[in-house]
Design goal:
Blueprint (H helix, E strand, L loop, with lengths): L1 H20 L1 H7 L2 H23 L3 H35 L5 H30 L4 H25 L5
Helix pairs in contact: 1-3, 1-6, 4-5
């Protein structure tokens, strides 16, 4: 059972990498509505994965999912920002100047800080509707997905020249 969960997590995270960050080039070759369909599929797969692993009661689920949706919407904005950062890196990779490198690094650290702020700002909201054990479980699941995404990006993005 754990092996299936891990494989599913990896599949979701890989899809997020391909659609959320690497899908920019693919989006240029496909109509926008097709990419939106793929993104929606990724979001629903992630939500299903979380639902399966959270084991929420009916009352917990009723309170949790609206907060989750709001959190994911804000997280999506950070992912878009990171996607643009990666695009800028790719566009400047061959001729990276110190100024561009500084700008990219500053933006990367700002995105990281904003991600932490987002997690912190939603902690009280999640705690307001779930026991701490389930909040911790949810944050663990999100952290595992983040780790797979970060690993996938690290493998695909070369070091600055």
């Amino acid at each position: 059972m754990k092996g299936k969960r891990i494989n599913r997590l990896l599949a979701i995270a890989l899809t997020i990498i391909l659609v959320g960050f690497g899908g920019v080039a693919a989006a240029q070759n496909q109509p926008a509505d097709n990419m939106e369909i793929v993104k929606e599929k990724v979001r629903s797969d992630k939500k299903l994965f979380i639902a399966t692993n959270m084991q929420l009661s009916e009352s917990e689920a009723k309170a949790f999912w609206p907060i989750y949706d709001a959190y994911q919407a804000e997280l999506g904005k950070l992912m878009e920002r990171e996607g643009k950062l990666i695009e800028k890196f790719a566009a400047n990779y061959e001729t990276m100047s110190n100024d561009v490198a500084k700008s990219l690094l500053d933006e990367a650290l700002t995105i990281d800080a904003n991600h932490l702020k987002l997690r912190q700002s939603y902690l009280a909201k999640f705690r307001g509707v779930l026991p701490d054990t389930k909040v911790a479980r949810y944050y663990q699941i999100e952290s595992k997905i983040d780790a797979v995404v970060v690993y996938g990006l690290a493998r695909r993005i070369p070091l600055v020249k």
